[in-house]
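Exercise: predict the fold of this chain.
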Amino acid sequence: MREIDVSEVTKAVKEMSISVCYELSEDTEKCIRDAAEKEDSPLGKKVLDSLMENLEIARKDRIPI
């Protein structure tokens, strides 16, 4: 059986936890982008566009979504 140092696991979990606060998965972001393009309602489109803008800010400035 392979042994793994607990500090390596702790570090990996920490990095992944922080990453999900700043970035969505590519497929989730693509779904939001596609929905914004297909949305007919002006208010719905505005909400989805704001969400996409917030995602970009979170990624760029490293602040939680």
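Check your answer against the key: Residues 23 and 59 are 6 Å apart (CA to CA).
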